[in-house]
């Protein structure tokens, strides 16, 4: 049995791993990937120590730093369920592997929110994308739609108007993104903005062919012909693995104390999966460090 | 052992693409990289081979990997 298991390989989990290793805890880092949301971040200018660094480069630096310590790593193994067992916890991965530890730092982060409309799941990757900066250029010269009204949606639109034939922006509410971004939209000639419209369905056989939108005031539906749909409507916490085990808030975030304690003794949580205010790389890293140090204290108390 | 033919379909802005290419470079594996944002023909080829439109797509001989899946990439390169 490990002393500590860190679940999640984003900035919170990586920082927790470094701190756990420096406390010489017998540690396992288990995660579906490394880097988490940094994988969909192009440039970072607010992580201290780097005036500017690209997402992949920062991840690689994190990996190197974690890799210099003698901890076990299982990367590519997503934890499906975490449960209590005698003397600690057991994590079960999607592949069916089981790992046990006395304490846990949960740092599973967040993932893109889905629209939950017909056609979305079937056409994901077939024209439906949750990463505009990744897949945007594939749709050069095509008609596309962006769903959302926040900063991510507006940034996606600003990138896409440069390369797409036409961009449709579909937002449930008035635009909530920064004024400086929405001002830049005014110059775009190949952009149509649909405010207070919701997405009713995504159409297409093999690939996306269109999107059905509904005016929420009049209830009128219309279908727009598009080849790509970028969904930028925020994030949801990856807390499915601990549902029923630990207390969550109404958004599904794990509630933590300032000491990163959850409602379950021995289970600590850090970063974007928690209700910590401000979801930032530097905050997540700090929270990961705190959680590992608290877990270390807990393990010390267990043995004395 | 004959070298495997590795092809990467990517976009210049996609962080996962960069991670995948950095990983191959680090392992000393030569590969051909196509920018599917500019090369329409190769974009079509990628969609045909992978039956989807997300990047990166990595083709090792005849095997197609969608996304940067390090575990799968390692097993195909082994």
Describe what this molecule looks like in 3D:
By secondary structure, chain A is of the alpha/beta class. Chain A folds into two domains: 2-111 and 235-303, FAD/NAD(P)-binding domain, CATH 3.50.50; 128-231, FAD/NAD(P)-binding domain, CATH 3.50.50. In chain A, 23% of the residues lie in helices and 31% in strands. Chain A has helices at residues 11-22, 55-67, 132-135, 151-160, 179-185, 281-303, and strands spanning 2-7, 27-31, 43-44, 53-54, 72-75, 79-85, 88-93, 98-106, 110-112, 128-129, 143-147, 166-171, 191-195, 197-204, 208-215, 221-225, 228-231, 235-237, 267-269. In chain A, the strands form five sheets. In chain A, strands 1, 2, 5, 6, 7, 8 and 19 form a seven-stranded mixed beta sheet that branches. Chain A has a five-stranded parallel beta sheet with strand order 10-17-11-12-13, covered by helices on one side. In chain A, helix 1 (11-22) runs parallel beside helix 2. The mean pLDDT of chain A is 95. Chain B has 78 residues and is α+β, with helices and mostly antiparallel strands. Chain B has a single domain (6-77), classed as Glutaredoxin (3-Layer(aba) Sandwich). Helices cover 40% and strands 22% of the residues of chain B. Chain B has three helices and four strands. Chain B has helices at residues 15-26, 40-50, 70-77; strands at residues 6-10, 32-35, 57-60, 63-66. In chain B, strands 2-1-3-4 form a four-stranded mixed beta sheet, with helices on both faces. In chain B, strand 3 (57-60) and strand 4 (63-66) form a beta hairpin. Chain B starts with 5 loop residues before the first strand and ends with a helix. The model of chain B has no long low-confidence stretch (mean pLDDT 91). Chains A and B meet through helix 2 and helix 3 of A and helix 1 and helix 2 of B.
Largest sheet entry of chain A: 7 strands, mixed
**Quaternary class:** heterodimer
**Average of per-residue pLDDT values of chain B:** 91
What structural class should be given to the helix and strand makeup of chain A? Answer: alpha/beta
Give the total of beta strands of chain A: 19
The CATH architecture of chain B: 3-Layer(aba) Sandwich
**How far apart are the termini of chain A?**
18 Å
Note the beta-strand portion of chain A: 25-35%
Q: How many whole angstroms does the radius of gyration of chain B measure?
A: 12 Å
Number of helices of chain B: 3
**What is the 3D form of chain B?**
globular
Structural class of chain B comes to alpha+beta
Order of strands in the sheet with most strands of chain B: 2-1-3-4
